[in-house]
Amino acid sequence: MSSLEGNTSLLDIERQVDQLYEQADLFAKSALADKVFSPAQANLLHSNESIKPEHLFGMAEAQRPLVVAFFGGTGVGKSTLLNRFAEQSVARTGIERPTSREVTIFVHRSVEIKQLPKDFPLDKVNIRQHQDETKRQVMWVDMPDIDSVETENLEIVRDWVPYIDVLLYVVSPERYRDDRGWQFLLDQGYKHAWLFVINQWDQGDEKVSQDFDALLQQAGFEQPLMYRTDCLSAQQGKTNGDDFDELTENLLSLADKHIINELDRRGTWNRVQALQSVLQQQAEFIGKPESFELLEDSHARAWAQTSLDLQQHFELPIQRAAMKFSQPSLSLFERFKSSKKASELPEGTTDDSDSVWDSRGETMLQSVLDKLILDADNLGLSLEQLKEGLNDVRLEIEEKMNQTMQAGLQQGLANPGNRLHRLIHKVFGALTTLLPVLALSWIAYRVISIFYTGEGSLYLGANFAIHSCLLTVVAWLIPYLLHKKMQPSVQKAAKKGLENGLSEGLSYLEVKIDSILSKNKQLQLGFLNTATGLIKASASIRPMEHSISDTKLTRMLQKNVALRG
Fold it and tell me: Most buried one in 176, 344, 383, 452, CB count within 10 A?
């Protein structure tokens, strides 16, 4: 494979990775907008994961320089070491340094820096140019102290690190076990090539070197390239044990096109791995498809039990409320006052004296919603969108249950009993009027007919009057008594209406909760399918198949992060 073909292939891979990052970013933003992701989960894919060292110089740069950064704690001599590399005073040291947040760049004047880290102020960058052709292919960056009490320092370092090819980890014999710098190495080690320098070596010994080497091997560097330097050697003529010349030679040898391509290729593969890792975490955060089925089944059982418990709980309160309607009928005046009072209530409200729904019922329904959230959490499902939907249900429980129970009561009182019962009652009611009228009509007919026949003296006597009265009373009394007997019970009608209202309210809430669960399921499964598709797409990307041939570069890379073809 020619060099041109290799570069073209690598550029194609980088374009694919850039497109995947854009898609993953849109996916995370959409999931955040729909409350499937929390802000922390949506921001797992940090923007600096898409940053590459060549971004500092722009895409038009034919061959960018190797970007080398000095990384370490306070007082280890990073700036002094940079001055020694530059063979001039580039970085201000000690009390001369105006701020620990300053970044110093030492670069050949032919190299144009077209982009700094996002929102990084120009007044915090000290750019020093040189004309030394032997150092043309290296850009040196002196970063702030990683262990400074200034928390802004760590943010500056994190902003700059994605632009770096080689991190020169500088320690001193007294501070080679720095916790913050060491943790940063463990977190970022696989993303960069590393060289290790024990500076101020005139104060160290072999035990320090051996211990530091053992620490690096534990961190994944099998044969770390470690150098011992003394920044005063050039001034005082000390050369014993000073590896500065070897370090300089190694850094300059790394600054060729082949090594930079190797580092770019490794960076591309690291970006793919980082994307896969984030997408896996986000997919796990959404949950497994079978978990949604388990959640629905669990809620169905819990709701059925809660509905039964609520019906049992309200059995006595409903009975007590219905007993109010077993009292004697109100007078006409009292009925008028009652209807007038009801008409004065605002529309959509009910008389609190007729309210049966209580705090116990509210607590039972709130508990079943709490259980739903807890079950979803235990099943590893995203909760934000589900919580928001259920909060709307929580707010309307009391109002809805009062409304449906009052409506059920009114409907029950308006139509007590069943249709046949009401029909028979109406028939007997009509007979209480019809039969007496018929009886009176028959009596009148007999009186008139007897009068015309002249037999009145024989029939229109006391016996006729008594029999006529008895006939009229019987014609009225029997249907009246049957009418009263067949009158639907208002108490039973009230009880049935309240029970129907309770069932209707629970059915309404059940349908709404099921709708929320269904919507949440479809939404999250959609995002899960998107995440799965992005994971498959990223897994299909493989950097060009060849191994790193440079032995020194291999020793600069953390193990277990080998490139795969």
Answer: 176
Rg (CA), the chain: 45
State the Cα–Cα distance between residues 201 and 209, nearest whole angstrom: 10
- Considering Cα of 287, then 290, then 292, then 297, what sign does the dihedral take? negative
Over 60: is that where the pLDDT of 310 sits? yes
- Number of DSSP helices (H) and strands (E) in the chain, helices first: 19, 7
Beta bridge partners of 171: 198
Fold of the CATH domain 66-254: Rossmann fold (3.40.50)
Here the contacts of 229-233 (C-beta below 8 Å, separation 24 or greater) are 229/81, 229/84, 229/197, 229/198, 229/199, 229/201, 230/199, 230/200, 230/201, 230/202, 231/77, 231/80, 231/81, 231/83, 231/84, 231/199, 231/200, 232/202
371: alpha, beta or left? (left if phi > 0; alpha if psi -120 to 50):
alpha
Q: Rounded to an integer, what distance in angstroms lies between the CA atom of residue 383 and that of residue 400?
A: 25
When pLDDT is cut at 50, 70 and 90, the band that residue 330 belongs to is very low
What does DSSP assign to residue 487? P
> pTM above 0.70?
no
In 3-state terms, what secondary structure has residue 164?
Answer: coil
What residue segments make up the domains of the chain, in order of their start?
66-254, 289-417+490-529, 419-485
Burial class (CB in 10 A: 0-12, 13-18, 19+), 314: buried
Check residue 199 and give its pLDDT.
87
Chain segment 6-38, per-residue pLDDT in tens: 444 667 887 888 888 889 989 999 998 888 888
pLDDT band at 507 (very low <50, low <70, confident <90, very high): very high
Burial annotation 55-90 (CB, 10 A radius, 16+ → b, else e)? bbbeeeeeebbbbbbbbbbbebbbbbbbbbbbeeeb
Closest to 278 (Cα-Cα) out of 538, 561, 1, 544:
538
Rounded CA gap, 260 and 279, in Å? 28
Q: What percent of the chain has pLDDT over 70?
A: 77
- Gap between the Cα atoms of 328 and 175, Å rounded: 96
Whose CA is closest to 531, among 325, 282, 330, 328? Answer: 282
Nearest-10 crossing angle of helices 315-323, 490-539: 150
Q: What is the arithmetic mean of pLDDT over 148-173?
A: 80
d(CA 368, CA 365): 5
Q: Integer distance in angstroms from the first to the last C-alpha of the chain? A: 14
3 state DSSP class of 563? coil
pLDDT digits (tens, 9 = 90+) for 522-562: 999 999 999 999 999 988 887 554 455 556 777 887 775 43
Tally Cβ neighbours within 10 Å of residue 21: 21
Percentages of the chain per state (helix, strand, coil), in multiples of 5: 65, 5, 30
Structure tokens at 166: 């080689």
Mean pLDDT of 173-189: 72
Q: List, in order, residues 6 or more apart from 385 with CB less than 8 Å away.
A: 34, 35, 36, 520, 523, 524
Residue with tokens 């729909």: 34
